[in-house]
Design a protein that fits this description.
Length: 429
């Protein structure tokens, strides 16, 4: 029976020779990730063990990762107390893959996991965060679940009642124009599919443009697959996957490659020519409200954000630093930069990117999610407009329901920082 990548992964994890779309399985989990919402999972785990006379224990501490990233440093006593609770739980359970707020090993969960080699091709990865889809960039089946479901995973090591999803094959051909890349591609695709166009399905990425794309771009694609409603995005593992795992994540043991069968059945095939579009902008207040940059040029911007689990990687900071080097952020706007991890922050320091950004007038923050979810650093004022490299722009996403958020690439964000209005990086760079 010919299978897609997700079908092969779920068959292996469920101990079956094959599975088909619509089958309900209970796969073994290879990695379970939470961030500060681990406090909620702990509460649910305690309920599971209530009345048993036993202390709550996780099934395998080596397969659990917890990363503080959404509210760091803690912004309220409640957050600080929850983080304390998680630290105590981690110590009691012997969970080694714990990343507290640190300048060296900390960062956003969806960057910390791949750069530490925690995610492997063919793995089943679950996380209490909708953008867990990011990790499909390494050829895994990665998807978000709730706190109650995660407590069950912590107790049993399996994900319960998982329906095998259908797969949409996305074939990307051609070459990107200068200052056009993965973020523009995924915005273009979301605009094409719609916010519900891939609901309960997997987006499986193929084509020459994907083969040439570095892991950073693949992470961006899979990160935002959920914005088209997808359960997950997957880039089948290839030489770039192996290069990243060996050279950047430090993986030395055997890596299994999972690729789709030649005659695998897809629900549909979507073809995209990368040469046919320029910088893309998701306009308020939905991610699928995508326009070519020409439609919004000159829109005044109060705050620019570069970072998040979507675009806070080293090459994102590099393009921003290159555009800003020797120039100044407009006094009409403010610019916040959030490196995705402590490792990336250090690399950007060594390469001079941080100095370039700061000298231009940007404020470089500690690695973390920042204002993306609207509860921490960088909230917007009434009726303000933000231009951001993050992944969502619905009302209130950056903390204020009267504000407006436009989504873009790091190149567009940096070019616009120079002018104070949405600007095309291809002009005057």
């Amino acid at each position: 029976m010919a299978m897609t990548v997700v079908e092969k992964i779920l068959a292996r994890a469920s101990g079956k020779p094959a599975v088909a779309v619509g089958d309900v399985v209970e796969p073994q989990v290879d990695l379970a990730m939470s961030h500060e919402n681990a406090a909620l999972v702990i509460n649910q785990l305690q309920e599971i063990f209530a009345g048993t006379g036993r202390e709550p224990r996780v099934w395998d501490p080596s397969k659990i990762a917890i990363i503080f990233d959404h509210r760091i440093p803690a912004e309220t006593p409640k957050t600080a107390t929850n983080q304390k609770k998680i630290r105590e739980f981690v110590a009691a359970q012997g969970i080694a893959r714990f990343h507290d707020i640190r300048g060296d090993l900390g960062g956003i969960c969806h960057q910390v996991l791949p750069e530490n080699g925690y995610v492997r091709p063919g793995a089943v990865v679950v996380g209490t965060d909708s953008h867990t889809t990011s990790h499909g960039a390494l050829g895994a089946f990665a998807f978000g679940i709730g706190a109650t479901e995660m407590a069950s995973v912590w107790a049993l090591g399996t994900a319960v009642n998982i329906e095998v999803p259908a797969t949409i094959k996305v074939i990307v051909t051609g070459s990107f124009a200068p200052f056009v890349g993965a973020k523009d591609l995924i915005l273009h695709l979301i605009g094409k599919l719609g916010a519900n166009g891939a609901t309960f399905k997997v987006l499986e990425f193929h084509g020459d443009a994907i083969k040439r794309m570095p892991m950073s771009g693949r992470l961006t694609l899979c990160n935002m697959a959920v914005e088209a409603g997808a359960t997950s995005g997957i880039v089948p593992a290839d030489q770039e996957t192996l290069r990243y795992l060996r050279a950047e994540a430090g993986v030395r043991d055997l890596v299994d490659i999972v690729i789709p069968d030649e005659r695998a059945q897809y629900e549909s095939v979507v073809e995209v020519d990368a040469t046919r579009f320029g910088p893309q902008i998701a306009c308020p207040h939905t991610v699928d409200n995508v326009r070519d940059i020409a439609a919004v040029l000159g829109t005044k911007v109060d705050q620019i954000v570069i970072g998040s689990c979507t675009n806070g990687r080293l090459d994102d900071l590099e393009v921003a630093a290159r555009l800003l080097r020797g120039r100044k952020v407009s006094h009409a706007t403010r610019m916040l930069v959030f490196p995705a991890s402590g490792r990336i922050y250090q690399q950007a320091l060594e390469k001079g990117y941080i100095q370039d950004l700061v000298r231009a007038g940007a404020v470089v923050m500690n690695p973390g999610c920042g204002p993306c979810l609207g509860v921490h650093q960088g909230a917007l004022g009434d009726n303000e407009t933000a231009l951001s490299t993050t992944n969502r722009n619905f009302k209130g996403r950056m903390g204020n329901p009267t504000a407006s958020v436009y989504l873009c690439s790091p190149a567009v964000a940096a070019a616009s920082a120079l002018t104070g209005v949405i600007s095309d990086p291809r002009k005057g760079a």
